[in-house]
Amino acid sequence: MSHARFMEAQIEPNGIAVKPWVMTDFITQAMTRLRWSLYYLQNKVAGKPVKLQW
Hints:
The chain has about 55 residues and is mainly alpha-helical. It has 2 helices and no strands.
């Protein structure tokens, strides 16, 4: 299931039931990838050597 479909399924009347710890884990992983992307872009703009972490 894609991330977009996962989010849509939560708000549908007969959608999937998502346990809070599952949602927290999903959000934590998304924020980690955003932080890595920001780090990558900042270093790339600054001319530093960069390496994707995912």
